[in-house]
Amino acid sequence: MQSVSPRMRALLGALVCVVVAVVSALAVDSRLDRHWVVRGITLLLALCCAALLAADQSRRFRQIITAVGLLMFGVVFPVSSTTWATPPEIDFALAVATDAKNAAAHDARSAVTVQDVKAAAEARGGAVGSRGTSEVRGADAFPLIVRANPAQGRPWACVSFTGQEAKVRAC
Fold this sequence. Notes:
Number of strands: 4
Distance between the termini: 55 Å
Radius of gyration: 22 Å
Strand content: 5-15%
Strand order of the largest sheet: 1-2-3-4
Helix content: 40-55%
């Protein structure tokens, strides 16, 4: 059986890591903060592991450790961070943002208002608050805290709009 050269394994590993990184970044809703810094660092670490794998190492143990690092930083971390990108409070905030944008579009407005977000949250049984206070009332400017349950404490999500473009993130 013919053995694959370390450089070819490293090139293939690096290519897989780049593909996984791009696909996992695009799989997350564009309105969310995609954690670009974390994703960039994990891709950089995966490429460093691929470079170490390309160096023809004499000890099999080092190659195994490097391959495991490549697998972890190149596949496991990006896929798991994509899977966990939308906890329930973020899902609720995304649904509220969609409803608020649809309400503004229905009324032929070019911008989503705080009232649109409040109405959308209340229609889904939730509430809106402002960042300056943990109270649910008194929200009058973006970013807004959106809660699936008015009595809910942390965790919650923040929603802000620029025109009709929403940005949702954990606060």
